[in-house]
Amino acid sequence: MQLFPAGLGVTLAMMFTMAVGSSAILAVAVSAPDSFPDIGVSDSYVGLFTGFVYFVSMFFGSFCTRFIARYGPIRVLQISAIASTLGLSFFTLATPTATVLCAILLGIAYGPINPSHAPVLLRVSHSGNRGVLFSIKQAGVTVGGAAAAGIVPY
User: Fold this and answer.
1) Which of 21, 26, 57, 66 shows the smallest number of beta carbons within 10 Å?
2) Domain range for residue 85?
3) 41: left (phi > 0), else alpha (psi -120 to 50), else beta?
4) Measured between alpha carbons, how far is 137 from 16 in angstroms, rounded to an integer?
5) Is 131 exposed, middle or buried (0-12, 13-18, 19+ CB in 10 A)?
6) pTM for this one?
7) Hey, how many other C-beta atoms are within 10 angstroms of the C-beta on 74?
8) Which among 47, 146, 64 has a CA at the least distance from the CA of 110?
9) Least confident of 2-16, 41-55, 101-115
């Protein structure tokens, strides 16, 4: 009997990318009480910001399978990481327009993350451990939220 399921290393890498994507979005929410007034908007708009990010994410996630088929899941994850970095970079400009661009880029980045994981995990799993591996990967959302809360200054 194996101590760890086959494909655990790949699953942990996918969990890490999920955590990074999640923490990028939640970093803005964590910093909102201090950063939003500097931008010129009330920190109560953090819910609107987060909702808009997830709306854009849902939109882009719904048709990203073409990109995954064409460029491969790893390349799409790399592009998502670049989009997250650019989005957070726009947030540092501290203007309302840059904050909207930040939300759009974070949504574009987050949408394809989960669909990109599926083909990778399907290659390294079998029917007996697939549920466990996908659950471990999905825990990255919670890990990312906790990381954002612990890392981002407020």
Assistant:
1) 66
2) 39-149
3) beta
4) 8
5) exposed
6) 0.91
7) 14
8) 64
9) 2-16
pLDDT band at 37 (very low <50, low <70, confident <90, very high): very high
Residue in 81, 87, 76 with CA at minimum distance from that of residue 52 = 87
Domain count, the chain: 1
Residue 26 pLDDT greater than 90, yes or no: yes
CA 151 to chain centre: 16
Length of the chain: 154
| Domain-embedded: residue 83 | yes
**CA 12 to chain CA mean position, Å:** 15
pLDDT at res. 47:
94
- Domain membership of residue 1 (yes or no) is no
Average pLDDT, the chain: 93
